[in-house]
Amino acid sequence: xxxxxxxxxxxxxxxxxxxxxxxxxxxxxxxxxxxxxxxxxxxxxxxxxxxxxxxxxxxxxxxxxxxxxxxxxxxxxxxxxxxxxxxxxxxxxxxxxxxxxxxxxxxxxxxxxxxxxxxxxxxxxxxxxxxxxxxxxxxxxxxxxxxxxxxxxxxxxxxxxxxxxxxxxxxxxxxxxxxxxxxxxxxxxxxxxxxxxxxxxxxxxxxxxxxxxxxxxxxxxxxxxxxxxxxxxxxxxxxxxxxxxxxxxxxxxxxxxxxxxxxxxx
Length: 266
Hints:
This protein is an all-alpha fold. It has helices at 2-5, 11-28, 43-69, 71-78, 81-92, 101-115, 129-148, 155-177, 187-213, 216-222, 226-237, 246-265.
């Protein structure tokens, strides 16, 4: 949906719309929150910081990468968060992943390398920092959310807190990062971005549910199945807009094998 929206708009416009939709979705969900069980805590700050890291920063770099590399390749590169997440979790959360998990992560990264064309990736090193920054922001946000759940367990209120910070800080980040470029709104692109925003809201709720009871070093790698779903959906939604080669498909399969290894060891 994001890729379709970018046909007539810009990455920072898509990011802005998705942030708004995410905020509104969790705001509306507050009507079913039992506030009698919620007590003010400094852990709220962790969720708000997570909102700045992801979706605000991560989405900006994600959409910039999609416009340059395409959906399939971007999803693969952003999945390098499977390496950043466990490393950050060791230092921030004190997690101690199973030693074998690093073999699974190595498979994941090998899949990314293969998907991007191996040695051909060197040609894109100048711009490779764009999706990697998105990956780092994703990974940091996972750890911040896990810290937040140390003092609060309401999924919807946690989503609202990160949505507030993202919608307040996000537009300023987008403006600064794009040199003040104007937003480009048109009916067709906005509709695609709205659907992308709804999908993102559902994804964030599922992610919060997983992080509340699981470990960052396990959940992050499982999320790396994204390229497989992206490939399946790309053929259906994008038609001939993006070419799916055997290399891309094989790379995605290697990534999924890495996820299976990580999950079985953890």
